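Hi! If you just cloned this repository, the fastest way to understand the data is to look at a raw example. We've pasted two of them here, unedited. The first protein comes first, obviously.
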Amino acid sequence: MFSIFHSLFSVLHSKRLHIRAIIQTDTGCVRRNNEDKAGFQFLGGSKTDFSAILADGMGGYEQGEVASGIMVDTVIDDNGQTIGKNPCRWLSEMISKANHRIYELSLRQQSVMGTTCSMLLIRKKNIYFAHVGDSRIYLLAKGELKQLTCDHTVVGEMIRAGKLTAAEAVGHPQRSVLTKAVGTSPYVKPDIFKVACPIKKGNRFLLCSDGLYDLVPDAEICRLLAQPSLRKAATSLVETAKKQGGYDNITVAIVEINEKINTDNHEL
């Protein structure tokens, strides 16, 4: 049982764009290994383009951490070198590339493995995200927490179809059954969006695995995420989940953007 901090503070990208980010991951109170992976970086030597990614692996012994590691490494190794002029295509290609690698490996090893993937991309003052599975991306703005991603789970589909309420979903036996994951089939189609919300100074994005939100209500996530110190916010989120049982790995990545960014957008 351990925690890992990966932090980047007070980095001035340009005269107008300022980003702070931190990652904390913890095995939790029950699991022996950590199948969550996360990372962030500036892309291709740029001082204005930035990406963050979180992946929660699934599979047999150690296979989950292999899958999530492949997903994160695929993005980190590319470092935005192939991004070109189409950020959405790049996001899709990164997930497709990792999906192929994981799926081929699972066939060779005759084992089932896969991973969720939630990615945040800042590119030329626009913000995008790509998403597969049930990890989440939240936005904290003006003291309010908004979930930007949809859970690709049986229960998530039932809620969107109006067959189940959010209250009824709490504790549902199929709440963690994925309907989509990276690496479990030859092809996967991620949700890819350009962020549809105003970005102002101090707004924060939270990428997290289900080990956090399964145990910590949104209202508490909002309160803890709003702490001035990113390090304290990350620690508080993880420790609160552990106090509630910590039966899964817990990973949070917080990205704070201090700039008004162009967000004219639609789902893409």
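Ok, and the second one:
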Amino acid sequence: MDSSSTPPRFVICVRNEDYEASLERGKVYRTTPDTTAWAHHLVRVIDESGEDYLYPEHYFMAIELPEAVEKALLSTS
């Protein structure tokens, strides 16, 4: 992911080494804006419980979803 841009709204997990219990590879996660974390190459993701945690940005790939999908995912939180 490009650290110079703004953090993405949704990411997909592509790595989970050292976080197997917390991250599921292939799963889409919602992010929360955290420019300080982003500047340190970290991304703040929200898990199923609604809690947010910091992880290395290279564990994720930013994805863009159709507007209807974004609305549906955001309405479930």
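That's it. A detail worth noticing about the second one: The beta strands are 10-13, 28-31, 42-46, 52-56, 60-63.
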